[in-house]
Amino acid sequence: MVPTTTLDPTGPMYYNGIYHLFYQYNTKGEVWGNIVWAHSVSIDMINWINLEHAIYPSEVFDKYGTWSGSTTILPGNKPVILYTGIVDDEQTQVQNYAIPANLSDPFLRKWIKPDNNPLVVADESINKTKFRDPTTAWLGQDGSWRMLVGSLRKNKRGLAILYRSRDFMKWTKAQHPFHSAAKTGNWECVDFFPVSLENTDGLDTSIIGKKIKHVLKVSLDDTRWDYYTIGTYDTKKDRYVPDDTMIEGYHGLRLDYGNFYASKTFYDPSKNRRILMGWCNESDVFPTDDIYKGWSGIQAIPRKLWIDPSGKHLVQWPIEELETLRKKKVELRNYKLNKGENIEVQGITPAQADVEVTFSFSSLENAEEFDPSWVDLYAEDVCAIRGSTVQGGLGPFGLLTLSSENLEEYTPVFFRVFKNQDKYKVLMCSDASRSSVRNHKKMFKPSFAGYVDVDLTDKKLSLRSLIDHSVVASFGAGGKTCITSRVYPALSIYGDTHLFAFNNGTETVKIDTLDAWSMDKADM
Q1: Over pLDDT 90: what percentage of the chain?
Q2: Catalytic entry in 8, 62, 226, 354
Q3: Ranges for the Glycosyl hydrolase family 32 N-terminal domain (predicted)?
Q4: CB-based contact 54:20 (threshold 8 Å)
Q5: pTM score, two decimals?
């Protein structure tokens, strides 16, 4: 079997009742390279049909590669793909387009690359080898289309370059960057979209108006994580201005604090929602294990995305269609977890499960002090210091996923509450350091973590974890903080997998509700 690699979701879209997922794909190996645009379709984003590749290197303007991009629905309900083509062995990058060969084909199986490509070529001011991943275009109130392309300037300044067009064919670069940030490195897979301040509904990318904020997401090549800011789109100056509370760069907000990169959103008009899709890379012994498996990389479960009522961050939740895979269910109610106690969740398939749990506690007084020396540390560094086995005051408590019977290996997903001066600080961790008894030096077993911006007035914290053999995707406090871990147990596999709820804090924690389901397989 020839190994294959699944990478960035490049152009997800909803068109005439069908969801389309295009994604970067290497048909010839388990590593990056030989990139084509693979194409799958679905009616629910859970069960997928794989089709023939939509785009692959074939022309002078993409002979050396067909890299990431996006889709846009033009007036007259006509979809178009924008993508980056590689034109030489020096990785010179240009922006191209493709259109369906037959709009009456419900699956849009075949795509054409017209002869007037490329649409955009880098001028002398642009680093032509760091010039890629055009966004979904939006139509301005002046009747001109706009799109962004990620790039890099000197001194590691990342930027999004703005282009305008009246007819979608002839594009002109704006005199100034749409936005840039110092010391952030190359910007990849840029995404820009509006979010409503009134409700959780999604908005078409071209919507402009009051009670709307905009989100600029960038994938940073240096860290391989996805960061975002929330701000204002100044339509007169054609610039994006992050809110004052936003932090840009490595200490900024991330869509997911784990194995999650090169994400892309799209507007789903059938259910008035914005959908986020992302790529989860491998963390096992590379490349040996990937060659043995015959594949590398997966797409994360699609998520609905909206802005939190506070306006400070986004919220994400697995799409409702995932619940169609739920099978046998078990429940636990009003169970007290004392210090050092755990309880096994029995009656489901722990290797493939959906778990929702709400914890409560009677007091915040036992929350441990947040060490001032941790202020400049990343959340994952604090998690590595104060892991699940380190006894605390209020926490750590949570779930031990993909566990062996005697806990030789497990992936804990948990909360720990700190007192930080006159406020409380909630740390959420998904710690892969104990996920496998295999200790190969090339295996990546990090302590992923993020802080949760949550009001503890009701003294409750909720957690949802989607467990699927080598993946644990977790959503804290209703999706305020999300962490996806790739793990590779040696003992806790298939029928030998266990699931526990645990508490290792001095404060007793109560499981108000725990609902867990065995999950069926999706069709792929």
Answers
A1: 90
A2: 8
A3: 8-318
A4: no
A5: 0.96
